[in-house]
Amino acid sequence: MNTRICETLPEPVVRRLTKYLSYTARMTEEGVEWVSSADIGDALGLTGSTVRQDLAHISAGGVTHRGYNVERLHKMLRELLGADRGWCVVIVGAGNLGCALAQHGDFDRYSFKICGIFDNDPAVIGKKVGDLKVAPMSELGEAVRVNGVEMGILAVPCEAAQEVTDELVAAGIHGILNLAYAHVRVPEGVALVNARILERLQELACLLNAAEQVEGRA
Amino acid sequence: MNTRICETLPEPVVRRLTKYLSYTARMTEEGVEWVSSADIGDALGLTGSTVRQDLAHISAGGVTHRGYNVERLHKMLRELLGADRGWCVVIVGAGNLGCALAQHGDFDRYSFKICGIFDNDPAVIGKKVGDLKVAPMSELGEAVRVNGVEMGILAVPCEAAQEVTDELVAAGIHGILNLAYAHVRVPEGVALVNARILERLQELACLLNAAEQVEGRA
DNA sequence: TAGATTGTTAATCGATTAACAATC
DNA sequence: TAGATTGTTAATCGATTAACAATC
Fold it and tell me: Which CATH number is A176's domain given?
C-alpha cells in the first residue's frame, strides 16, 4: 500500500522525503513527540505548504492542532525509503572511494548492508577491506544470485562505467547507484540514481564564479 | 561576461551543463569535431530542444547545419564551471570518505586541488593521506587565509555537521560541498551544494520498493 | 472556547517540449 | 540547391506556493 504510493511519487517529493527521514531521526533522538509542517519546513529550508503536500502524498496522517507524530512519521518514512528491511548491496570498484564506502558506518545504520566488493584489477583482488575481501568481477554473478543482492554501487573510473554497468545488469541487479563521472544507460526495468561528487563540485564552482562577478561590480 | 550569465542560470540548467562538460571531454578525446543538440540529447537522455535552450543560455554559438564545435563548447563549459582555473579546496573530516576524496585523482584532473585535510580527532591528526597530513581544526583559518582557499568539503558525521560548517564559514570559506547526512545552514553569501550518497541510496530503495510492488501485481 | 494546524483546492510560477522561421 | 540544424517563441506540463474550510 505504501509502495503503491512510492511508484507514482514525483522525484522532487522522494528527495525531500529522504530529508524528512533524517530530520525525524534527529527529533526521535531528541525525544520530540510532535512536529508541525512549519517546524519541518523551518529546519530544512522549505515552506510548510510544500511539506504538507509531500506528507499528504504518503498519507502521513497529520493531526489538526498538533501536527505530525514524530515516531509514526519516522516509521512510515523508514518503510517507504527502505531503511527498515535490510538491503544487500555490492560495490564495484575497489579504489579509494569504493573502499571508503565499504567501510562507511552510515550505510549499515540505515540498513544497507555491503555484502561484497568487486574489481578486475589483479593488484587489488584479495585485498582486505574492513570485513570483506575484494573479489574478482567473475564472481559477481554468483554473489548476486546467492545473496539476493538488489543494488550495486558503481565506483569505477569513467572509462569503465558503461561496461561495468552492463555487467551489473547481466548479473541480475535491480538498481544502480552511479558514482562514476559518466552517464550510463540501463535497460528498462533497472533503476538508476546518480550521485556524482565531482559534478556537484562543479556546480559549486559555477556559483562561486557568479558570486565573484557580483562582488567585482559592487 | 560568462559569469554574468552563470549568476542567473537556473539550477537544473547548471546541473545539465556539468553533464555536457563530461560529454564534450569524451568527444574531444575521441576527436569528434561537431555535435548536434540531438547527438548530445541522445547520449545523455535529454531532448534536443532542452539541450538547445541550455546552450542558448550560455550563448554557445551553435552553427546552423553543423551543430556545436566540440572544442569550443568544451572550453566554454570549462570556464563556466571552473574547470580551468585551479580551485583550492580543503576537506574537513579525515574519516574513510574524507581520506578517499583527498586521494581521488578526478578532482585534480578537473582543477580542484585538495590543499588540506582537517580533523579534530587527536587519533588521526598528523596521519599521512597521500601527499597531505591531517591537520587540527585550529589550523583551518590560517590555511584558508594563506592559500586563498575558497571551497570546503564537509565529510564529517552528521552530529558535527553544523558546528563544522560554522567553523568553515568563520574561516572565510565561500562555498561548501556537504557530504554529511544532515541539513546545514549557511549565512547569506556562502554557497552550499549538497551531495549525500546515503540519501541517493534511499531514493534508489524507494524506486525498488515500488518496482517490486508492480511485479507483485503482475 | 479560541487558536493552531491540517488537507486540499486554486493560483502562480518555472521548466520542458514542440514548432518553426532563419539560414548555412 | 536541398536538407539539416540552430535559436527563439509559444504551448504544455508539472511543481511550488497561497489560501482557506474543516476541526481538534
Answer: 3.40.50.720
